[in-house]
Design goal:
Layout lengths: L1 H6 L1 H18 L2 H21 L2 H21 L6 H5 L3 H19 L2 H10 L5 H19 L1 H14 L5 H19 L7 H10 L3 H27 L17 H29 L3 H19 L3 H16 L3 H18 L3 H11 L4 H17 L4 H11 L9 H14 L8 H10 L3 H25 L2
Keywords: Membrane, Transmembrane, Transmembrane helix
Protein name: Citrate transporter-like domain-containing protein
């Protein structure tokens, strides 16, 4: 019975989240309570499909939340409301696969794959080309781009010594991933930071682009210099045809145009109807993706790929359901207790030095990721803890550090999804990946922190 339910979890998730989203506009308190009550069995069922790490995190948040709840004497009827706080994030995750699907339906991933497979003379040049390709793909298809890039590199670099191949792949793909998502409106860390600080996406965008491009260019220069001495001799069978620069440029231009249109729609609709960023992106993704597919005359392909991808992805978000719902209960309870002021003390203690505050946020991310705490959980807690700081520190600056600090951990978190995936694909120790990318993570985070400091 449980197995049958687990295979249909996407139906449960979709029903509850659609009702929740509709009620955002309706504003019926009774329905909000019903949705909150339904979230409890949804959380319990999701525990069965969640990984061990997320079960542990969820159990800790629920356990501590229950202790705080009981000790504070909060009424039982507040529990359903507490359970709905992070549901907009789950709704956001539920529609993300459709953007992934329209890129695949338009075969943009295949075209950019050709850019990676086209022959170059040495690994230094391949480093820049692969980083560029992964960067663009990650903006649209997130972690799927990581798998695609690594799959191609593992095949084409099979002649290299394993140590060199592992070093090359774990640097280039993870770093491009972390940099691309810094400004992507489809990245959950960006959405959470915007929601936490109340600063509009448009105000963030130029500074996040500046940080992302600056670090990316530095990374290209360093990578090209480091690997240029190694010749690149790919498997000949993998190089099927010569890349056509003009066609490739057209495909990239189309992708960038689509992104600009998407961002314009998100900003316009959000401002017009006074919606928050997470909700706006959630509402725009599906109709935008379908409209884009129709313009490309790939509607049927989009629906076929999209339905299959959406079912698989939606049926596999148990980790995030456990994390978000347990975190929702914990942070909501924490807000009602004096314990919150105790956690805020280290940040308030350095309140006269904004630079120390920003670095403290950055290193909190780093420390938490190294012991296995997902950055989503960290930002969820930090967003509550640092609220008093908005009175004397620019929320834009704090938001930039929240975003960059979170994404820097994608390259070093030994228990994180990205490092674990890379470790499995390349068959190398995840701690080797952590050590190799730690200088980059520190540099990336420091650049973000310094830019944020200049904006105070």
């Amino acid at each position: 019975m449980i197995q049958l339910i687990m295979q249909r979890m996407y139906v449960i998730y979709t029903f509850i989240l659609i009702v929740f989203t509709i009620n955002i506009f309706w504003g019926n308190s009774f329905i909000e309570t019903i949705v909150g009550l339904m979230a409890i069995p949804m959380l319990v069922l999701s525990f069965y499909g969640a990984s061990k790490l997320f079960r542990i995190l969820g159990s800790i948040f629920i356990g501590v939340g229950v202790i705080l709840f009981v000790s504070s004497g909060l009424p039982l009827n507040s529990i359903p409301v507490f359970m709905t706080v992070n549901m907009p994030l789950l709704a956001f995750l539920l529609v993300l696969p459709w953007m992934n699907s329209v890129v695949r339906a338009g075969r943009y991933d295949r075209r950019l794959k050709e850019l990676m497979e086209d022959n170059v003379s040495n690994l230094g040049k391949l480093y820049v080309r692969t980083s560029f390709t992964t960067y663009i793909l990650c903006t649209f298809i997130n972690i799927s781009a990581l798998s695609l890039s690594q799959e191609i590199l593992i095949s084409n670099l099979s002649k290299l010594k394993k140590k060199l191949r592992d070093s090359f792949i774990s640097r280039i793909t993870l770093r491009a991933f972390a940099l691309a998502l810094a400004w992507s409106p489809m990245e959950i860390m960006v959405a959470m930071a915007i929601d936490a600080t109340g600063v509009s996406y448009i105000r963030y965008l130029p500074w996040l682009l500046l940080i992302s491009f600056f670090v990316l260019i530095i990374e290209w220069l360093r990578g090209r210099r480091r690997f240029k001495e190694f010749p690149y001799n790919p498997i000949e069978s993998r190089i099927s045809k010569k890349m056509q620069p003009r066609i490739m440029a057209i495909y990239i231009l189309k992708l960038l145009t689509a992104l600009v249109v998407f961002l314009s729609l998100v900003v316009t609709i959000g401002n017009l109807f006074h919606l928050n960023f997470i909700l706006t992106v959630t509402l725009v993704i599906l109709p935008f993706s379908f409209g884009w597919a129709l313009l490309m005359k790939r509607g049927r392909s989009f629906l076929k790929i999209g339905w299959k991808t959406w079912k698989v992805r939606s049926n596999s978000i148990q980790n995030f359901v456990v994390l978000f719902l347990s975190l929702s209960f914990f942070t909501s309870t924490l807000n009602e207790t004096p314990f919150l002021q105790l956690i805020q003390q280290p940040f308030i203690a350095v309140g006269e030095s904004p630079l120390l505050i920003l670095f403290l946020i950055q290193f909190t991310y780093l420390a938490m990721c190294l012991i296995g705490v997902h950055p989503v959980a960290t930002i969820g807690i930090l967003s509550e803890v640092i609220q008093p700081l908005y009175a004397f520190v620019n929320p834009l600056s704090i938001g930039i550090v929240l975003i960059v600090g979170a994404l820097a951990t994608a390259t070093v978190g030994a228990y994180g999804v990205t490092v674990t995936l890379t470790s499995m694909n390349t068959k190398q120790n995840p701690y080797h990946i952590t050590l190799r990318n730690m200088p980059f993570a520190l540099f990336y985070g420091t650049v973000g922190t310094l830019v944020a400091y200049l904006l105070l």
